[in-house]
Amino acid sequence: MKYSCVMTGSESTSASAPYSLHDRLGFRVSRLAAIMRASLDKELSQLGLTRLEWCVLASIALEGITAPSGIAENIGITRPTASRTFKQMRDKGWLVQNLTEGDGRARAITLTDAGQDLLARARVLVDAHQARFLDKLDPQAAAHFLSALDTLLEGVHDRFDDP
């Protein structure tokens, strides 16, 4: 299904302008997110991995974030959700949580060898998944699209239980 937006300028906020649900930013972004989420969930499930677990693996190994609170903030989830996820991943043997040097209370999370192996296999799926969508755009359009998304997300710091 193709979507087109015919409203421009002040028409887009006018109560008298024709309304089309499919022209709304929220509808389009939500629909794209739902499609991408469902397809990635299906692919990652082949590895016994959830999107949230992928986000944890990537935050630790690819972005170098090891503090539990930092990982939760990076992903945009609540602390209780993060704690449950870390426990499940420890139970699966994918990560370990150790006390950091110099602070008996601070903890650092690292991946086990099994977690590193899973990360490598999942990275191939995640990269291919993203490429299937972004490759529909020429490189300049993709860069503009991602930049526009960054602009729309500026100042938004909500926490969700489903990133």
Automatic annotation (TrEMBL):
SUPFAM superfamilies membership:
Winged helix' DNA-binding domain
Record SMART domains: HTH_MARR (SM00347)
Q: Which residues cross the membrane?
A: none
Q: What is the lineage of its organism?
A: Bacteria, Pseudomonadati, Pseudomonadota, Alphaproteobacteria, Rhodobacterales
Q: Which domain of life is it from?
A: Bacteria
- Write down what this protein is called: Transcriptional regulator, MarR family
Q: Name one Pfam family in it.
A: MarR_2
Q: Which organism is it from?
A: Sulfitobacter litoralis
Residue span(s) of domain HTH marR-type: 22-154
